[in-house]
Amino acid sequence: MKIRNINDVKKYANQITVLIFIVIFTSASFALMSHYRFQVQRKAYNDKLIIEQINNSASDLSEKLSIIASSTVFLDYLRSGETTREKLYTQLLAQLSTLKNPNVTGMRIIDNNGKTIFDYGKHSGSYVALNLCYLNQTLDPEMGFCNHTWKLYFDHGALLRDILKLNNSLKSCVNCKARELVNNGYFGSFPVADKNKLDFKIQMAEQSDYFFYVYFLLMSLSLVIFSCWCWYRLSDILNNYIAHPIKNLAKCLSADEVIEQSNDIDEIKYLVGEINTWKNRINKTKEDEHGIKLGKIAAQLAHDVRSPIMVMDMVIKNITQIPENHKNMLQQAAQRIADIAGGFLVYYRDKGIADSEIKNENVLVLLQAIIKEKQLQYSDKSVNISFTNTVTDNYYSNINASDFNRVISNIINNAAEAIEDEGKIDINLFRKDAYLCLSIVDNGRGISPDVLPHIFEGKSVGKVDGSGLGLSHAKMVIEGWNGRIHVDSIQNKGTQAIIYLPCVI
Amino acid sequence: MKKYIKVLFLISQLFLLPAIAAVANKDSVNILTWWGYLDYPEVIQKIEQDCDVKITHDNYYSNEEFLRRWQGHKEYYDVIIFSDTIYGVVKPNLPDLSKSTLWQQSAEYHPVIKSHYLSKHYPHNVVYFVHAMTGFLWNPENIKINENDSIVSIFKKANGKLVVLMDDPVEAKKLVTSAENGDQLTIANFNRVIQDANVYVTNNYSQIYKKPNFAFSYSWSGEAVIDLMAANKEYKFLVHPKLSYVTSDLLAQTSTSRGATCVAKELAGKKLATEMQENMFYFAPYKNMPVSKNRYYDAMHRNFIANLSMIPWLEYDKSQFDIDNRNWQLIKLPLNTKKT
Q1: B61, B71, B200, B226: which to substitute to probe chain A, counting the most A Cβ within 10 Å?
Q2: d(Cα A367, Cα B322) in Å, to the nearest integer?
Q3: B303 assigned to some structural domain
Q4: Mean pLDDT of B303-312
Q5: ipTM for this model
Q6: Residue B301, CB-side half-sphere exposure with 13 Å CA sphere
């Protein structure tokens, strides 16, 4: 199996785990089944052996009885009346002596009428009555005619001992299953008419399960070997595909070396790729930090330069002592400087580098400077910019001075631009609760009701030039100081913008 | 006084001794007979009372067994009952009892039977005991036999099924020689007749009758009735015009004792024959026998009496017996071996 990714590793590991479980389960099941089967077979074999031994004992005796029962003297005795039987008695005894079985303690021969025609020896409680069935002179249980019963009495204990002698593994027992000397109604080849106490409690001696133990040992050994192989294989996979690549990765990272791509799994390759990418980004970020610092300085410089240049532009316009062409050149130069500064500012603001450091600033001072600059800026336009201050102490708020200048300057510019011919812009500084409030009110053309709800969304409200820092930017900046801005306007009447800045206590 | 008492006691003992001895020495009559003939205790008991004897009897199952026991221990027996087919073999060993009056029983024989009896010139101590017809007892479920069948065709119909033949070399020879190509009782002739039938040779086939594949038995009429009743099946008995004949059992008195004379006379008498026909189902030689209660026997007896003058009697040349008996043993050997 080719391992390409972590899923393959998991899959492979799962397969091995499942395999281990299957092997363990199968082995255990097989061992148990084999053991069970072995026990069942052994029990069946033992039963068969016991039955065979008992049958052999019965067959051995039955064979001798058959020889006697087939003898002429025995047959003549059966078929004779009392007179002839008396004459044949001694001959029959001689014939019976060939039985030579001490377990038979006595016997009787009974005819069909229940009359005993032969009686010899001791009667015991253990006996079997055999049907004597003859076809002509031959014993034939199937086709023969059964006229007599041969009842044999046994010494049960002696018979049991004889059976046990047949096989050393046999032993008598108390609570085990009793085995009948009579098998399926037959004692050897004789059909049985009656029997009593001919069962023997015999069992095989306990046998060791050597075979099973050897088998179990081999199975366990095989299982251990297989488990070791599985463990080795899993370790190999985890080391080769997980541990070693991660170790190598850590080593390269700590040594700040380049991480080489190799034949790793896809996830490791991805990690290596990502780490390399982020390393490059971090290096680039470090380079960018220098640029940001420079950018901030440049942006601040560009911003600060713009207002003096505008003043210069106003002054140049009003200077009459220099030739017009020189005045134009000066104005173009000032405009060019303003463009360069504006370009810087726009560039760095686009990159988000412009300074936004917040400090505890004197709002009144900053405001007065802006108003003075704006009054000068719009001196040639019929716009009257007035300022009223009702705050007597604590003009401080945590703001960024540059951003504040930019925001207020833009709002005043907006108000000025809203005035078409002539008008006024009233700026008031007042306190409300914990806020320094600054209202800028013009009597310009106002903002249409359709546009008013969207003025903070960054969309154009009619003004196309400027630094690009519109009301949306103003709102964002002010809210960054934990302040707020509110704009209200009536079309053709004017607009009011109120800025709330938290006072520094 | 004591002396007198002792003397009186001894005298009384002297008077009692003959009575005790009479009981102890009561005449005993020992009979050698076919199995089943005398297995009726009440009949035997009656004869014992009439003759004041104790009767014991030995059974045999074949002529061969009879000859062995008779020739081995002639002195054991006072009366013998045997087949007339072996009379020639038995005759030399029969005692000369010319004063016996047993032959006088023949005065009441059926005329045809009497004629046969006289023609045989039996000694005075030999009379007919019973008669029988040979025939085929057949099982309609397995075979159908009619009067036109030859012995070969009958055996052919019994292909593979159970067939029983009487264990008698004389009767077996009669059967084999009735076939077209046979004149001697040989293994080849016998096998040619029986073909592929599963043949048992025995005179006691009470178990074989009950087998589902039983086809037929060639047997005596009396045995057929007994077995018909035992089997409780609708078997048929065919008296074949070419293959059936009359066979007889003889009774011979072999002892001159009073008891033997009395018992022989009782056994051979019409009175006992009348009583025993209800049990034995063999035909008595006497004329005017009463009607039997057994329908099978009664039908056969009527048939027997009606055809008595036409049915052939089994005739046999005694000089052939040893040869035929030896061949018969050879024939039976593989059959018995096969069965066992």
Answers
A1: B61
A2: 168
A3: no
A4: 88
A5: 0.83
A6: 25
A21-45 average pLDDT score: 83
Q: Around Cβ A79, how many Cβ atoms within 10 Å?
A: 21
Distance CA A216, CA A211 (A): 8
Cβ contacts of A111 on chain B, cutoff 8 Å: none
Residues of A whose CB is below 8 A from B203 = 136
In whole angstroms, how far apart are CA B235 and each of A145, A482, B80, B93, B307? 20, 131, 33, 41, 22
What percent of chain A is predicted at pLDDT more than 70?
Answer: 92
Q: Across the interface, which of A79, A135, A140 has its CB nearest the CB of B58?
A: A79
Cβ separation A138–B65 shorter than 8 A:
no
Could you tell me the residue range of the domain that residue A153 belongs to? 6-210
Are residues B181 and B277 located together in one domain of the fold? no
In tens, the pLDDT along B52-66 reads: 999 999 999 999 899
Same domain for B225 and B326 = yes
Cβ–Cβ below 8 Å for A84 and B204: no
Domain hosting B125: range is 27-129+248-282
B233 in any annotated domain: yes
Cβ contact A143–B201 (<8 Å):
no
What CATH number is associated with residue A472? 3.30.565.10
Q: A462-496: per-residue pLDDT in tens?
A: 554 443 347 888 888 899 899 999 999 998 899 99
CB A132 within 8 A of CB A47: no
Final residue belonging to a domain, choices A192, A210, A228: A210
Contact residues, chain A, for B57 at CB < 8 Å: 81
Question: Which pLDDT belongs to residue B1?
Answer: 46
Minimal Cβ distance to B60: which of A79, A138, A145: A79
Residues in B closer than 8 angstroms to A142, CB to CB, are: 207
